[in-house]
Structure formats: structure tokens, C-alpha cells
Amino acid sequence: MNKLQRYWIDGGLCEMEPRGVFAECVHRIYLQDEADAVISALEAENERLRRLGIEEVMAEVGRATVKFPTWPTDPLHALAVLGEEFGELTKAMLQHTYEPEKSTLEDVHEEAIQTAAMALRLVKSLNVYEYRKGFQHVQAILNREQEKP
Does residue 88 sit within a domain? Predict the structure, then answer.
């Protein structure tokens, strides 16, 4: 009889004869307890990191609110504040990716936290914004050829 080889099939480890075809499992070895322990540890670490991130964002919301206690009542100005933070995050991410000497992962992290904090400030005021059209004006045509009806 040929030496048995091991393959992962359906979440379990099977021992099979090496025939090039997954015929039938001679013997299935489950490592469920070990897999459950690894999954549990990963879930706990993910939860710890999630909570840490939320705590960082909430702390940043507090700092920003103390520094800038007022917030725009016009939703488009509020969105511009968020957009400005997102722009800084974009710059940090691009620099870290393409010009790593100009930005660190810590810079990206800091900008991501600040962007999330401004998103929360925007959300906090959704029911307070004055949703109304702004005044608009007609612009002059810059190119006379575009005047043709």
C-alpha cells in the first residue's frame, strides 16, 4: 500500500492514498478543538482592536469638540469639514504608499481616526441641519462660440 497523504477537505484533514484523484477518505482527522481555539483567539483580538479604534475615535471627537465647539448648521459646510479630513487621509495614504519617506503608517492611522471623528460629528447633527437650497447665480459665458442657440 502506498504511503497516505493528507489533504484538507470540507474543513477536515483526510488521509488518502496518492492516486492523483480525491477518491475516498480512508480516515478523516478533525482538528475542530484546535481550530475553535484559534478562531476564538482571533475573534478576541479583533474585538480588542475594534474597541481600541472606537475609543480612539470617541477621544478625538471629544478633543475636536473642545477645540471647535461649534459645528456648521448648513449640511454642505459640515460635509466640507469631513471632506477636508478625508483629503488629509487620502494624502497620507498616497504618500505612505508611493512616497513612504513622507508619511508613516502612524500618520495614516491618525488621519483615519480624525476622519472617523468628523464623520461622527456630521452624523450627530443630521436632525439639526437646515436643509435648504443655497442662493445661485448665472455665470457669464467665457467662450463666445458656446453662445450659439
Answer: yes
